[in-house]
Amino acid sequence: MTSHDLNERVRAAREEVESRGETFYPGPSRIHLASFPPKERWDDWIELDSTAWPERKERRFTLVPTTCFNCESACGLLAYIDRDTLQIRKFEGNPEHPGSRGRNCAKGPATLTQITDPDRILHPLKRVGERGEGKWQQVTWDEALDDIAGRIRLAVQEQRHNEVMYHVGRPGEDGYTERILAAWGVDGHNSHTNVCSSNARAGYQFWTGIDRPSPDFANAKVLLLISAHLETGHYFNPHAQRIMEAKQDGAKLIVFDTRLSNTATHADHWVAPYPGSEAAIILAFANDLIQRGRYNREFVRRWWNWQEYLAAEHPDLEATFENFEKVLKEIYAEYTFEFAAAESGTDEAVLRDIADMVATAGTRLATHNWRSAGAGNEGGWQVARTLFLLNALTGAVATEGGTSPNAWNKFVPKPIHTPPHPKVWNSLTWPMEYPLAMNELSFLLPHFLKEGRGTLDVYFTRVYNPVWTNPDGFSWIEVLSDESLIGLHVALTPTWNESAYFADYVLPMGHGPERHDLTSYETYNGQWIGFRQPVLRAMRERLGQPVSDTREVNPGEVWEENEFWIDLTWRIDPDGELGIRQYVESRNEPGTKLGVDEYYAYAFENSVPGLTGAAADEKLTPLEYMRRYGAFEIQSDMDPVYERAVPEAELEDVHENSLGRVFTRTPKPATTNIAPHAGPEGDDEGRRPAGVNVDGKILRGFPTPSGKLEFYSSTLAEWGWPEYALPTYIKSHIHRERLDRDQVVLISTFRLPVHIHTRSANAKWLNEIAHSNPLWVNPVDAAGIGVRTGDLVRVETEIGHFVVKAWVTEGIRPAVVACSHHMGRWKLHDSQQGSGTATANLEHHGSNWRLGRTNGAGPYKSDDPDSSRIWWTDVGVHQNLTFPVHPDPISGQHCWHQAVRVSKAHPDDRYGDVSVDEAKSRSVYADWLAKARSADQHSPDGTRRPFWLMRPLKPPKEAFRIPGKNATNSDCHE
Amino acid sequence: MAFYVAMELFRALAVLAEPPTPETKRLAELLGIGCPPTGDEYAELFLFQLYPYASVYLGPEGMLGGEARDRVAGFWRAIEVDPPTEPDHVAVLLGLYAHLAGLEDQASSDREKAALGSARSALLWEHLLSWLPVYLDKIIELAPEPYRRWSEVLMAALEEEAQRTVLPQTLPLHLRVIESGNLQKDTGDDVLQAVLAPIRCGMIVTRADLARAARLTGLGLRAGERRFALDALLAQDAPAMCRWFQDEAQTWVQRHLSRAAWLPAIAGDWAARAQGAADLLGGMGQDAAGVQAPSAVPSRMEP
User: Fold this and answer.
1) Deepest of A142, A313, A720, A815, by most Cβ within 10 A of its Cβ?
2) To which H or E segment does residue A79 belong?
3) How far is B87 from chain A (nearest CA, A)?
4) Which of B1, B4, B9 to mutate to test the interface with A (most CBs of A within 10 A)?
5) How much is the ipTM here?
6) What pLDDT score was predicted for residue B1?
7) What SS3 class is residue A966?
């Protein structure tokens, strides 16, 4: 047979197979990811059983997609479900997921160890004895739900809405629970965000009206990261693979990190600045662009709100762009390379090289900051604000290879019910002192409660562990132990954690493959949705066995939150008289509870463009399509939204203010994408903002008051912070000028690449890989105090100390030490075993608290034979307990960096010792609170907060009004 | 139509150079290569005997990577495709050839078609025909039935492609960079390395070949990587091993020349390399025999 004949045979066979919608062959793997099972064979996939080797024993699997829940990236997973036993045997990547594209980090496959964890919580538990005593009894879900629902119902009926609070770590979903809270009418959403990313959010939101960046890494020419993206950064797996693509394509990678992170090792330029000096360096780059005229003049002219700036700050100058450029040169003239080098302790020549690199990037400059320097420093929000200044100068905003606001690379489908926002204002989370806070002042809650600002009747913690995660954890233990401050603490968690020990109910919730959620994140220049689903439920349904309650397929009585919240809400208002039940009611069968199938079917059928068609092509419903593939890409290669012209049909009875902001009476067009962004206010005649006039054309612009990029923030200027209205450099609380001679800076914000904040405590594979958090000490500093690697050192903070091992390394600069926050898990009772937690005892005398380790990790007998093979004892040290609260006076972010003294451990010190004086903690809290500029003193219009800023739950304007204050200014931003 | 032929067949052949999957069975049937290869056959051939990377056969070190791989990667970049992690793997190169053929088939303009045709031709002559016929020749000698048939089908397809395209004026760059006649008699250690580098000695010497050499010469084969095993064989009886190599190289001269009809320049170049090795090793064998021959000088150990 000739080659031609063979070819024709192959062609005919291929066409025949592909006509059935199947994959003939995936192609050579080094090009086409052939190692992934073709999707049409996911129903019945055969692999050899590795444990049977050398026997060639075949096992048959059904591959069911879900979404990883071990960080916020929401990467796709494929569960391999054994068709004989209906057990999940392993997790691999989902090649159909547009964000992760089949790739996962260690945390994805390790999900298996979490769902098979022999020590996970399998049944609802109710406290007996004192809080923290460790005595529990198993209760039924009905018993727990009725008790909790009854308390919430009473609180709502008695107008005590603010006594109900839900405190979430990583949401892992797009607004589901916020809508539940809205249905209850409570302003009770409390997030972890102010110990995480609020500073970065502030920097981005004041510029664009959207609080997250979305860099198009893959297409960038120059990437500037103030983070550790290649190992742990936000959305790190989807981002890291695209950063590497850019590098392979010749892009230059610049990394700012005081530590030699894994990311820094891949950089073309690694800059290790003195912590807190990052903005000074960035401004030197900006100044260089400005002074040498290397910025994108046309972009700046068209899209910066320079007219507003000149009008506010230079009213005597004629409002011409040329005049603005002259002023711009003066504003940043002081930020020379010499200044930046001196401030940061870096090499001036290197900074000049990087500035040249940035200048050549054009509109392909991808920058990113999320935590790192942003989260560490007072004024850290200016890191993101100055970093985005580089994008704004080069015009690399929502361009190919540039950085976009995230809302344009995200899709949140409108759900079946959208309850209105609550009508009340909760000052425990949104206190008067922080009108510009990006998110709830979550970590100040214990202090607020102790001050008598309020009490909580029902407090949920969900995927959140404030005792361990937050600074000043002992203050959390104090309030969680006090039933007069927190009436009922309900911990929703798959595993034990330090906060759950102080709960009244511990309710078992599912891991990623045991629950439904909908996700969408800005991982590249496109929009996608990912579907998290209980894979065994999907499997049963494929076998023709309908499941109406996820508990039927989850281990023990483990539930999922979607169904839990629906059920709880129903019980709060069983007859509908409170107006709450309607939001969890079926539309298909009125009067009955909404099911998750109907909930997601509605969203997929009605709110996701293109999904219905894609599903129909495969003869599936949209829900069946998502259950089969787990993800859907709505759009790729997004254009710059701000450049889109506003259609004529939207411009009825328009009014344009003096700065070109255009308002219209045309109602807002219906959209099915409810991705969050700021909501600039309309004019005082009731029109809504529709766009902005740029060179005579009405364009969509940005969701800011001016409609443009806000180089000048009138919000900051009017709300008491005029000195920070422009991108600038704020000296951190750990600036060298503020440290004593014997103090050094402790960096605690970095992660270990394989761990998750609290959820990986019992993930045995991950614990085996990483189970220690030594203190990084430069050899110079180590020699100064006479310690070597492995020696114990005492680290003294403002309120106490901890004892940890030293790791002497050149990977950290002198006068700075570093310790990852990802370790140091503890439990109070040996019965709660685990591969990653030490057993500890707590001592409390007056205001002094002490935590001491009694046992490290070790082997133990369980259903899992691996638990008897635990070879490590170290689980790290819980340093966050010794950190006082440091709320940034503007963003509200906790500023993590600490001024510390490091010395050789004292003779009585033991590894893992933690000691804290809560009296000192309260004193530091008071000092930082005094830095704030309260709304009742500085509000320009008698409200608590600028109405246009984002807020997870956004009460109506009336609730913004400060009691006893009249409106002093117009409500609109003219 | 000619381009389409290449696309389907070459892609199928590329997939068969990957670890066997359930799809392999279907492809094996279609291509008439009989029973599909098994995982252990794949491992024995591609992981232990004949590494499926161009750089192994075209680089002066006879190892993965190096400048030969860079040249292949450079081709990917030249056609504005990011080189994959292993740009010179046979499956990848065949897949790329099929990909280019597919693009060429779908090109919307004559100019685009010509550019793609030129790129495909360059890939064929520079990075496939420069080494694959030699490599496939060796597979046909060594491999189990499925891979022997795979090689035969691929060889035939390559021959048809070569005859369908214009014969280049010059040798592939890989062969020009490392000229034939490069072996140096006076650097013994280099020669040892050179006989394991196909581009330098004109022949492929596998682990199985060394085992065969040991059997034929009656020497002991020490387990280890090829360089180690060869060292040990030479230490035992250098003249015998040099003779074996000389014979082997002469055999390769004829093997190369058997392809002269469709690969005149390339086959001739490879044959010259093998001939150079045969000459050198023959001389070395004689030298070694001279050293090892009973000396006229009485040993001091003699009474």
Assistant:
1) A720
2) strand A76-82
3) 8
4) B9
5) 0.85
6) 41
7) coil
